[in-house]
Amino acid sequence: MMAIRELKVCLLGDTGVGKSSIVCRFVQDHFDHNISPTIGASFMTKTVPCGNELHKFLIWDTAGQERFHSLAPMYYRGSAAAVIVYDITKQDSFHTLKKWVKELKEHGPENIVMAIAGNKCDLSDIREVTMKDAREYAESISAIVVETSAKNAINVEELFQGISKQIPPLNSHENGNIGTIKLAKQTSQTSRRCC
Ligand SMILES: Nc1nc2c(ncn2[C@@H]2O[C@H](COP(=O)(O)OP(=O)(O)OP(=O)(O)O)[C@@H](O)[C@H]2O)c(=O)[nH]1
């Protein structure tokens, strides 16, 4: 018997930074050059082992287009973690990320784990955001930070592993409102929905 913990995770960030592509790489190990912009939000799950627990990520991939901004609270409310994504080749997207962090701090769950993903690191020859700037900023807000490439499958697993490690274990006194607890056989299951 192994405890399965359901952890709501949302992805936030500018349109086109690669949120859906990161989720698609993580859940389906697939990359689509012609992926469409998300309308509203999309949902997928993936279960991964973490120590003697299983973490079932309930992943809400939000739409980055400004017209969907007002929907975001539905997805970050009750989230154990937020993955905030920017595109390393677009300084503007790093600015948008900071706005999301501010919103999360003001209106998000108190103990939300924040993970910053600098996506498209396969395009580092045209980067506009340095790793140093990203690290310093992440440190200032106590967030995890990693550069990813959904395209080349770089650091996507590591991103979610990093989140898993930041979630206090079940026997911790701090586990308050970060997911429900179920007992189940030791199976690793992945629910796949189209992205
Ligand atoms: N080179 C490169 N391109 C990527 C990468 N990740 C995503 N892309 C491309 O970037 C574009 C946008 O990707 P999406 O995953 O739709 O971006 P999104 O953040 O979900 O966008 P919205 O749904 O509008 O919020 C697509 O053309 C992807 O193929 C990456 O790691 N490297």
Automatic annotation (TrEMBL):
InterPro entries in UniProt: P-loop_NTPase (IPR027417), Small_GTP-bd (IPR005225), Small_GTPase (IPR001806)
Pfam name, any one: Ras
GO CC annotation, single: early endosome
Subcellular location: Cytoplasmic vesicle, Phagosome membrane; Early endosome
Chief place where the protein resides: membrane
Keyword GTP-binding: yes
Keyword ATP-binding tagged: no
GO molecular function: GTP binding; GTPase activity
Coiled-coil ranges per UniProt: none
Key words, A-Z: Cytoplasmic vesicle, Endosome, GTP-binding, Lipoprotein, Membrane, Nucleotide-binding, Prenylation
Transmembrane segments: none
Membrane topology: Lipid-anchor
Signal peptide, first to last residue: none
Similarity section: Belongs to the small GTPase superfamily. Rab family.
The name this protein goes by in its record: Ras-related protein Rab-31 isoform X1
UniProt lineage: Eukaryota, Metazoa, Chordata, Craniata, Vertebrata
